[in-house]
Design a protein that fits this description.
3 domains; Dna Ligase, domain 1; alpha+beta; four-stranded antiparallel β-sheet; binds adenosine-5'-diphosphate; D-amino Acid Aminotransferase, Chain A, domain 1; binds magnesium ion; 34% helix; 312 residues; 9 helices
């Protein structure tokens, strides 16, 4: 492509740059891109998606409470994670954090009734853990009390004094495992991520991401951008998953990340998608004190002292 500079007669305007192509195919392609962009710009400007019934006050006090107790921030424990996600209507499965063997067995007896095939999942817990299943800290499909008791005993032997109990959950019915999450980028602000999930998420590396706040269009293109999109929209006779439930998860994450710059990392992996809904069975949330960043104003928006926040 060459460039021709055209001097305009009106002195008030800077010289206009016109692209010139020696190849007509390249010129036609460029014209098509210009047309697509013009159409895109002509569409109604996308407003942020709605996420009804988010309890911002409850989330604010939980986040402030955690950052007061842990000024350097860190990962939320299982109880606070469940409370924060519940405040924003994010569908985490029932998760009981039981601190000793008898409490684990009691929780498993109670939750088994809710589980797929009457079974529960048991996850060893200690603060700051990552990739539990790679360490043998996740056991799924447990049936009777004896199994639960012996798995918890294995956990206590394997993980020693760092073990701070276990999280007991009903087994979720199988479906398509996705990851949905948030990271706060220091330059661009909150980014919402969707991808193929489960324990093979890193290997598959099938992800799409958009800056929050998300628009309705973002919700659509985040899904269609995935290589695994056909698994969600119905493939080889399998029914489509509940895309409205998936959109709601993304919209709520977007709202949460936009409301709280302190939420520096949230990782819902997996969110299990089925034709009748979406259910997250593993969530991690990390907080840090941060001023919020407004990419439009290109400056740091410092939270007011009245809100009880301080800047780093
Ligand atoms: P981690 O990601 O830390 O290894 P997870 O809690 O995500 O641990 O568990 C690993 C895998 O076990 C999940 O991807 C999912 O396939 C399965 N799993 C975990 N909890 C449940 C549950 N409650 N119901 C069904 N499957 C589960
Ligand atoms: Mg996980």
């Amino acid at each position: 492509m060459g460039v021709i500079t055209v001097k305009r007669p009106a002195r008030a305007y800077p010289p206009t740059v016109l692209p010139a192509y020696s190849d007509s195919v390249a010129a036609a392609r460029a014209l098509a891109h210009a047309r697509d962009r013009a159409r895109w710009l002509a569409e109604a400007p996308p407003g942020p998606v709605e996420a009804p019934d988010c309890d911002r006050g409850a989330a604010r006090s939980l986040i402030d409470g955690h950052l007061t107790a842990h000024p350097d921030g860190g990962w939320l424990d299982p109880l606070s994670t469940a409370d924060l996600l519940a405040a924003y209507g994010l569908p985490l499965t029932t998760s009981v954090w039981a601190r000793d063997e008898d409490a684990v067995v009691g929780a498993a007896n109670a939750l088994g009734r809710l589980g797929h095939d009457g079974k529960v999942a048991l996850k060893a817990y200690w603060p700051g853990q990552v990739h539990k299943s790679a360490l043998g800290a996740v056991r799924t499909g447990l049936g009777g009390e004896a199994d639960v008791r012996s798995v918890y005993r294995e956990f206590t032997e394997r993980f020693g004094p760092q073990l701070a109990g276990a999280v007991v959950q009903p087994m979720a019915a199988p479906g398509v495992e996705l990851l949905a999450g948030v990271v706060q980028d220091r330059v661009f602000g909150p980014l919402v991520v969707l991808g193929a999930g489960g324990t093979a998420a890193d290997v598959l590396a099938d992800r799409s991401a958009r800056l929050a706040p998300l628009s309705e269009r973002d919700l659509t293109t985040m899904v269609t951008d995935l290589r695994s999109a056909p698994l969600l929209t119905g493939h080889a006779g399998a029914p489509a998953v509940d895309l409205a439930a998936l959109r709601s998860v993304l919209a709520r994450l977007s709202r949460l990340a936009d409301d709280f710059p302190e939420l520096v990392e949230a990782d819902l992996n997996p969110v299990i998608l089925r034709p009748d809904g979406a259910l997250c069975v593993d969530a991690r949330v990390r907080l840090e004190r941060r001023p919020s960043f407004d990419p439009y104003l290109r400056r740091l928006r410092r939270p007011s002292a009245a809100e009880g926040e301080r800047t780093p």
